[in-house]
DNA sequence: GACTTCACG
DNA sequence: ACGTACGTGAAGTCG
């Protein structure tokens, strides 16, 4: 006998139920980034850890109930009839328990027609028969205690899921003075309220135990019933005889269910760490994640050899390189435009040279090396590397591979930007994460021992080099090599150049606005205090809610998770009945401008060049768009006049220059017209119609040339937006403030008028289901695992995403192509004009006034020619002395 | 650090 | 019956 086998059987449903209520008080804090409740999954995971440690089983299975109907409901159709429906917050978690178990390497099992209890009863018996030394059962339910024997212990959760009460035959004898099998008789007599079967009238646990001590079993009781003294109880027993036997039968756990798994298949071989890590990331279980990150992990990582680079060796080292060279430049602080340099690593084929002295890079041999575009480089984050080297006066060319960009293209959902984490994602373990080496938050700093830094840098370089071939191969398999080589990689350089160029901001203008806003802010503040008859913090939605809805008793229109909503929509509805609502809106508007835009922008103006240098995130969004941070220059106010004034501060870098901007008109709807091949939608664009008016005519059944009143156009515009977002009647009704039914009518008529748009929507969802992802025109991918979710919300969200991503993503692709071509044109033509900003469908430039006539032709032409669609593109443009003055002409 | 609000396409 | 419009970033409050 090689080993003593020990089987652990877990009652999945009942433990999940206990787990759910164990953390029920914290249900609102256990929500992951996808909006899934995770409290039951979390507690279930804790339980697993506890029992694995406690029992150290050799074999495990978790049994689940298969469905509502079982052989018991056939015998007694009220079985479990009174049971409350499982809360949706719990049922949405159940599918993920299976994922968790799979990652744990634990078999889960359910059997049609049987309950988890019966699976457990059957396997417990089989295991004992097959010579297992021990069986432990974990459940939240005392029913299973009937299975206890010398070999089988039933562990019932008490208070939460981490404390177990072990029911052995001895323990049961002590507690009930019964044998385990008599538990069944007890249930037969006393019934079970939770399973909703009756037992005998007026007989509860106590009476049942008394009777069983005397007569041993239900059968025994009825054999001796005649001899019992007349009593109310005797009468009840007589009347309820059938019920008693039925209840006993229902309470009996099957030990011969047709379970199809073999005991050998339940052997436990441990967790799948990579799968578990993915799962914890998905659930946002950071504590489990960090426990998983084995504290010894870094020690287990293969050490990489490195040499400290000294100046004298540079020419020889560079001369010795053949083929691609890996280079990595370390900067710790978040903003790489100003972050101090921490060090660098360079090398190839496992030969790494490190240094903390970035001045070495300015040696002529190095600068020539970096500028040589024939000398291929492998990097992590080309844009950051380009900007960093630029700060050292070094030109960078010849990048051939960017680990960050490639990883993003392979799966834009993995939007992290830590080299170590990304490497681990691709099964490369021999590199630490930055958090492991530098720490996080306020504690983030260079390691005391410089050797630790060197090792980390060398490991990073090795990771880049090792991952290049396999990830390049995956790009090709996905037909994404073109997307990488011809779009994203060259774009990284263009973006770097735009960030470096920066945009000039006029401090005086901002300060002037600040004064003006401050005055108005003070006035409206006092007015609000007067109306509220007290002073309070208007910025606090909580305090504001109290004033509006408790003190002033205004009607509550909407609630948020935590209290009253005071959002714009709500205040607008209150406006007619309460002037304070209007004033709060004014206050909010001004406060936002003041803090986010005036103060916010003043803080980030570079003291030397008076410019703002944003950072574009090229590897963040799930759709392929860029984002802009520190500061965000993609959300500078434009819609309201007050906010629009901010744009007066954005000026050209030289007098006698102008700001020039060009934008795509309706690019997303044009993309939709292209990919759906919808004739009517295409025709509207080909005829150069006002697209929203055209849609209005169609969905409201007007004549071709009929006048469209502004309200109809507004509604049609909302429908068009809805279509692009992956429409739902509810969403549209909310947006337009109409009934859901009315919204549905609009959508139905839209689809009738644009049948191929409807077909596209159906087809793209079907594609997502079939392949698990959707694609843009340029093969950008987005995986949608939730498309198969049983959870309505998650699935619906995935379906809307499937409809929207190819549209938004293709539009993002198109402007990226335009940017590349634009930058080439500016260079080839030796123009001074500079591309400064991208705001999703528009490009902003600064240029000498004398170049404007050329730009007015060139920019629209380049943007227009970026891609050939089945419908024409339309590009608008304008210019002026400040960004504010740029209005389309 | 979660939550709410609001700026943009 | 379920309860959402798609994609972002920043500032403020509050526990």
Automatic annotation (TrEMBL):
SUPFAM superfamilies: 5' to 3' exonuclease, C-terminal subdomain, DNA/RNA polymerases, PIN domain-like, Ribonuclease H-like
Catalysed reaction, written as an equation: DNA(n) + a 2'-deoxyribonucleoside 5'-triphosphate = DNA(n+1) + diphosphate
Domain of life, source organism: Bacteria
Domain 3'-5' exonuclease span(s) in chain numbering: 301-476
Pfam families in the cross-refs: 5_3_exonuc (PF01367), 5_3_exonuc_N (PF02739), DNA_pol_A (PF00476), DNA_polI_exo1 (PF22619)
Annotated PROSITE patterns: DNA_POLYMERASE_A (PS00447)
Record keyword DNA damage present: yes
GO MF term set: 3'-5' exonuclease activity; 5'-3' exonuclease activity; DNA binding; DNA-directed DNA polymerase activity
Residues in DNA-directed DNA polymerase family A palm domain copies: 643-851
Alphabetic keyword roster: DNA damage, DNA repair, DNA replication, DNA-binding, DNA-directed DNA polymerase, Exonuclease, Hydrolase, Nuclease, Nucleotidyltransferase, Transferase
Family statement drawn from the similarity comment of this UniProt entry: Belongs to the DNA polymerase type-A family.
Oligomer status and interactors: Single-chain monomer with multiple functions.
UniProt-recorded name of the protein: DNA polymerase I
Organism of origin: Loigolactobacillus rennini DSM 20253
Lineage: Bacteria, Bacillati, Bacillota, Bacilli, Lactobacillales
